[in-house]
Amino acid sequence: MTVHEAAIPVPHAAHPEEANRPQMNRLGLWLFFLSETFLFAALASARFYLAGADRPEHLNQALGLGITSILLLSSFFAYRAEVAMAHGRRREFFKFILGTIFLGVLFAGGVAYEWATAEFSASEPYGTAFFTMTGLHASHVISGVAILALVTLHAAKGHFSPDSYWGVEAGIKYWHFVDVVWVFFYPILYLISI
Fold first, then answer.
1. Is the pLDDT of residue 5 over 60?
2. With contact defined as beta carbons under 8 Å apart, do 100 and 173 qualify?
């Protein structure tokens, strides 16, 4: 190797770790989801350990169904935002990602309203499970809103394109994960009863 060859920088993509970056990012995200699944599964099993299959008669079923519908709709909006970015439709991306953020905030507000109006306390077995499960889930929704807001800011600065939008994909995968958790939490908290 000559002195001139040593001075030529190696292209970024020539490094093997850079070539594997997308796969490593995806693997890391899925391992994170796996660890979170254990946490949420522990909470779900604790609900049955603490309160059995009982639930209060005066649980606000309409509100539970309403916030569940909001969260499911937000997942559709998130999907549409990712598809829009993948196809370079930036205006459509912003419309759907902002809709997702709005619905996430609405969901968190619904949970806060339910906490304020619940006719059971955290000292009761069901109440302990309910407030813990909904509280931890709502904190994940709030963190998801923050992640999507950050993704939106980066997109507004032109950081993503149809060829490179990992940040969008990762943020929306996290959003879908949080929604799937609620799909299990909703019947466990609102529907199951002896």
1. no
2. no
Among 131, 127, 140, CA closest to 180: 140
Under 8 Å between Cβ of 189 and 133:
yes
Kindly state the average pLDDT of the residues 156-169: 94
**How far from 98 is each of 45, 77, 103, 154, CA to CA, in Å?**
35, 9, 9, 13
pTM for the whole structure: 0.87
Instruction: Give the span between the Cα atoms of 18 and 5, in whole angstroms.
Output: 22
Residue 127 exposure: Cα atoms within 13 Å on the Cβ side: 12
CA separation for the pair 27, 46 (Å, rounded): 29
Rounded CA separation 115/121 (Å): 9
Please give the Cα distance from 116 to 189 (Å, whole number): 17
If DSSP codes are grouped into helix, strand and coil, which group holds residue 164?
strand
**10: confidence class by pLDDT, cuts 50, 70, 90:** very low
CA distances from 38 to 58, 66, 119, 158 (A): 30, 27, 30, 36
* In contact, 185 and 140? CB cutoff 8 Å: no
The two three-digit tokens of residue 81, written as one number: 């935002």
What are 51-70's pLDDT values in tens digits?
Answer: 998 888 889 999 999 999 99
